[in-house]
Amino acid sequence: MKRLFKLVSILLAVVVLLLIAAGTYVKLALPNVGTPPVIAIRATPAQIEHGRYLANHVANCMDCHSTRDFSKRAGPVVAGTQGKGGEGFLREDGFPGNYYAHNLTPAHLGSWSDGEVYRAITTGVSRDGHALFPVMPYEKFATMDPEDIKDIIAYLRTLKPIENDVPASESDFPMSFIINTIPAKGEGGQRPAPSDRIAYGRYIATFASLLRATHPSMNRDSPCQAWILPEDASSQCQPAPFVRLTSLQLSQALGRGHAMPSLPGSDRMPMELPNQQFATAKSTPLCPGQRLLT
Ligand code: HEC
User: Fold this and answer.
1) Which of 83, 193, 232, 262 is the most buried (most CB within 10 A)?
2) Is the CB of 120 within 6 Å of ligand 1?
């Protein structure tokens, strides 16, 4: 009996030591995505314009990194707040901590090198080396063509500087450990020729189908919203009106790009939504307190 007790104690001690070693490794050695790339972006006006389009309408950077008016349908960005930051993704919304979208204007990113901004967007590692929570969809952005990322950075450099000190994000245990294991160095993708509409649409859809990642508080005050979600994404309930598209439909729709008419009442995510998709939306369960746009 004594020997068994001794054995169990030794085993427990080993397990505790291993856990401490693993925790120390995760805290001190991770994230490890390497140093920021050395790049100096010199963009043409056309590239900056492309970055503006991607950041505002496709990769939706500005949806999360600006002030939104949720009293209006689809919560449009308040004019003049582009990139200001401050939106919270909070415990009360079900997040494992409080996360605040940073200020992306030159008032905050102005002193960062292009490579530091590039690394943050594509790997989820901030300038000082700390890991970002993946509500900031860096895993998706890692699949983007480096040229598209550079166009976005060039656009960010043109934003009006807005002084706005955003609170520091904080993770609860165990996310405070797990978060360090999430950043990864991506390979980057390749932008297909826009003339190949399906391939181009599919490429765009890999980082465009992000609205799902936005937080439930977006629904709190707004009676109607239009959300687009590919069928392979998961959702427990659906903000109204919820439009469920297959990945291919989404790719095709996005492949036709921004020339499409906007949703009624929405100045964002310009999509053409056939009646059939509204019908599908109507048959899906809604989040509590939601009603369908008719
Ligand atoms: C779904 C919301 C969302 C979208 C979309 C989004 N971000 Fe973020 N972003 C965040 C949040 C939240 C943080 C803070 C995460 C944290 O502190 O852990 C963040 C952090 C960042 C940071 C790090 C800043 C710093 O000081 O560490 C940069 C840079 C950034 N985002 C740029 C972008 C760009 C560029 C895009 C579009 C290509 C984008 N984000 C899209 C929510 C988002």
Assistant:
1) 83
2) yes
Considering the domain architecture, whether residues 147 and 171 belong to the same structural domain is answered as: yes
| Cα separation, 64 vs 47, whole angstroms | 22
Both 210 and 169 in one domain: the answer is no
Three-state DSSP class for residue 148: helix
d(CA 106, CA 197): 35
From the number of C-beta atoms within 10 Å of its C-beta (0-12, 13-18, 19+), residue 51 rates as buried
What six digits make up the tokens of 166? Answer: 């955003």
69 and 168, same domain (yes or no) = yes
Whether residue 65 is found in the same domain as residue 91: yes
Give the domain extent around 276.
Answer: 197-282
More confident residue, 115 or 73: 115
Residues 162 and 237 in one domain: no
Give the distance (Å) from ligand 1 centre to CA of residue 119: 12
Q: State the closest ligand 1 atom to the C-alpha of 149, by its place in the atom list counted from 1.
A: 38
Does 182 contact ligand 1 (Cβ within 6 A)?
no
Residue 7 lies in a domain: no
Report the distance separating Cα 172 and Cα 160, nearest Å.
Answer: 34
